[in-house]
Amino acid sequence: MRTLCIVTALALLTGVTACGADADDSIKALSSTTTAVPSDVSFPPNGETVNVLSLDNNFIPQVIEVKAGTEVLWENNGRNPHNVVPAEDPKATEWGVLEAAFQPKDTYSRVFDRPGTYVYYCTIHGTPKAAMFGTVIVTEP
Ligand SMILES: [Cu+2]
């Protein structure tokens, strides 16, 4: 619902009429909204949490889609240490957790406040594209 409000507001600002437009126009309005919003726009925490289990050796669910502002909570439910690191940042300097702090029963959480696609993996048991890896797709609220 909020996405529709944003589309309408942008349509008004840009002089495009969203109300009463046919399906094709609505799709165009929606895609132009996506490109019009800067990728570095961030949204406040929304109080929602989505859990991801880290098992031996995969993430379940492997792919999740959440609205910006959602907390993602990983729990190591396996019997071995794991880690959660961004595909392009194996040292987890931006976000993520290394195995020293992600032993069995440990948790790690992060609020994803910016829309985007975040690929991550466990460096011990996977690569960014195989085995123990996962994706968090963050959409606009
Ligand atoms: Cu692992």
Provide a descriptive summary of the structure in words.
The protein starts with a helix and ends with a strand. It has 141 residues and is an alpha/beta fold. It has 2 domains: 35 residues, no CATH class; 91 residues, Cupredoxins -  blue copper proteins (Immunoglobulin-like, Sandwich). It has 2 helices and 8 strands. The longest helix is centred in the N-terminal third of the chain and has 14 residues.
Secondary structure layout:
Blueprint: H1 2-14, H2 23-36, E1 49-54, E2 59-60, E3 63-67, E4 70-76, E5 85-86, E6 107-112, E7 116-127, E8 130-139
Parallel strand pairs: 1-4, 3-8
Antiparallel strand pairs: 1-2, 4-6, 5-7, 7-8
Bound molecules: copper (II) ion (CU).
Summary, kept brief:
Helix content is 19%, strand content 35%. It is of the alpha/beta class. Strand 1 and strand 2 (59-60) form a beta hairpin.
Integer tally of domains? 2
SSE order, one letter for each helix or strand:
HHEEEEEEEE
Radius of gyration, in Å, reads 18 Å
Cα end-to-end separation: 9 Å
Number of helices: 2
What brief labels describe this structure?
4-stranded mixed beta sheet; single chain; 2 helices; disordered N terminus; 2 domains; binds copper (II) ion; 141 residues; Immunoglobulin-like; 8 strands; alpha/beta
